[in-house]
């Protein structure tokens, strides 16, 4: 069974004045909100400005139902 919901930890980039992925290698994508919150709180302790964004697959024509 595929996971249809992911939680991405993002950081705020002062230069771009926008939210960006915290890591380029995809290591800050989590399948549970609890895991994302744990790491987000750890990054916050390091004085990073972070947030969690939920991404959800709503339709995949290549997947059987």
How would you explain this protein's 3D organization?
The structure is a single chain. The chain is α+β, with helices and mostly antiparallel strands. The protein is 20% helix and 34% strand. It has one helix at residues 33-45; strands at residues 5-13, 18-21, 29-30, 50-56. Strands 1, 2, 3 and 4 form a four-stranded antiparallel β-sheet that branches. Strand 1 (5-13) and strand 2 (18-21) form a beta hairpin.
Estimate the global geometry from the Cα principal axes: globular
Main β sheet profile: 4 strands, antiparallel
> Fraction of residues in helices?
10-25%
Strand content: 25-35%
DSSP E strands, number: 4
The low-confidence runs, each spanning 5 or more residues with pLDDT under 50, are: none
Cα gyration radius (Å): 14 Å
> Secondary-structure element sequence?
EEEHE
Distance between the termini: 10 Å
Provide mean pLDDT, rounded: 91
Number of helices: 1
Structural class by helix and strand composition: alpha+beta
Can you lay out the helices and strands and say which pair or pack?
Blueprint: E1 5-13, E2 18-21, E3 29-30, H1 33-45, E4 50-56
Antiparallel strand pairs: 1-2, 1-3, 1-4
Short description:
The chain is an alpha+beta fold and 65 residues long.
